[in-house]
Amino acid sequence: PEQEMVRYENIASIRKAIQSISNDKIRRIMTYRFIDELSFKEIAELEGVSEDCSTLRVHSKRGQKILAELLS
Q1: Separation CA 49–CA 60 (nearest Å)
Q2: pTM of the model
């Protein structure tokens, strides 16, 4: 029960941080990755781009950097 509570608090913190990201595309991608736990392939399908699309990976890396800053 305690682990579940900690997990819920972590998810709530991540969700709040994601919501504060101003770039819509990065915010969507971070939601897909960390809240919905989708793969890059699934995200690419939702975004209508190739899975190998470098833009998708760049946005993901930028989003991870922003989240790291917001959560530290």
Answers
A1: 14
A2: 0.82
